[in-house]
Amino acid sequence: MSQVFGHDAHFQAIAKGLASGRLHHGWILAGPRGVGKASFAKEAARMLVDLDNRYSSMVDHQTHPDIIWVQRLPKEAPKDGEVADPDAELKRSITIDQIREVQHSLTTRPSMGPRRAVIIDAADDLERGGANALLKSLEEPPVGTYFILISHASDRLLPTIRSRCQLLRFEALSDDDMRKALMRALPDASQSEVDVLVQSGRGLPGQALSLAGMDFRTIEGIADDILRTGDPTNKLRHELAESLSVKSAQPSYEAFLRFVPVKIASVGREMASDTVITAVDAFHEADRLASRAIGLTLDKQAVLLQMGNLLASLHKRG
Question: Which InterPro entries does the record cross-reference, listed alphabetically (predicted)?
């Protein structure tokens, strides 16, 4: 499992279940965006269907027939002969039709071995009908089929889904594990670049990688200035809204949305006990807004201004 750092105990739980022959059929991987849940899911699926690593390339490229990935689809499907655009805008939800398609595929035996893995990325994106359809499969799973549900907010999943799965909670990585993960992912990066990404990523390698190659230090500096000054004239908030709302800034926009909840959590850890509730409320609001803004087509400037407001709300609260 050398491609994933910081989650050894969770791999041991999967390996122990496999070795005993009593591996649970459903798993929820719960934790913040960017902590490595999708990478873990892929490696856990590899353990299930390709323990001898004979089909590594197929697993890596998500083409192994016994690993079914279920994700939100593009709003506009590529035309015949066209290559799918990885940056295409996605639908709001994982639909019930997608889950029914998976269920139909589960009526046949696995193609290359005795086991099959179904990865839902992310289960939070399931529309209500899709969640109910998935529940039926979790209640009566086909023999040799294992469900891996990635969740950024597991408390929002149906209680009946949570009750039928084992929960693995993913915490932010240590700085040492962050460096290892980033150095593997970015072998040409300098030590100073890695150090900046470790600091900005705050234990979330996915977030750090989303910042690689962009001048995120300027954006982070504006966020720090809002926290420090409270931005009484709203000037800094408007600068952020104008610079990150243009189409060309989409990667920076999404990175900033993921960054703000982590930043607020970091500030909250330094706050006095009688004021920390402000940070807790701000964190939940920022996390909810980030999830909705990335998944839905919300007005970017309004989202960015609200994120700035949440940062400003912590001014002089430490």
Answer: DNA_Rep/Repair_Clamp_Loader, P-loop_NTPase
48 contacts: CB under 8 Å, gap ≥ 6: 18, 115, 116, 117, 146
Please tell me the distance from the alpha carbon of residue 284 to that of residue 279, in angstroms, as a whole number: 9
Q: What's the pLDDT tens digit per position in 283-306?
A: 999 988 988 886 667 899 999 999
The two structure tokens encoding residue 255 = 């990175």
Domain at 8-169, CATH homologous superfamily: P-loop containing nucleotide triphosphate hydrolases (3.40.50.300)
pTM: 0.72
Amino acid at 142: P
Buried-exposed string 4-19: b where 16+ CB fall within 10 A, e elsewhere: bbbbeebbebbeebbe
Asked, as a colleague might, if the bond just before 122 is cis with ω within 30 of 0, I would say yes
Torsion of CA 29, 31, 36, 40, to 10 degrees: -10
Residue 3 has pLDDT above 90, yes or no: no
- Asked if residues 43 and 56 have their Cβ atoms less than 8 Å apart, the reply is no
* 193-244 confidence digits (pLDDT tens): 788 788 778 899 988 887 776 666 777 888 889 999 999 999 999 999 998 9
Helix (H) or strand (E) holding 69: strand 67-70
Q: Which helix (H) or strand (E) holds 63?
A: none
Structure tokens at 122: 């992310």
Contact 43, 183 (CB under 8 A): no
Residues near 75 by beta carbon (within 8 Å), at least 6 away in sequence:
88, 89, 90, 91
Residue 126 DSSP label: B
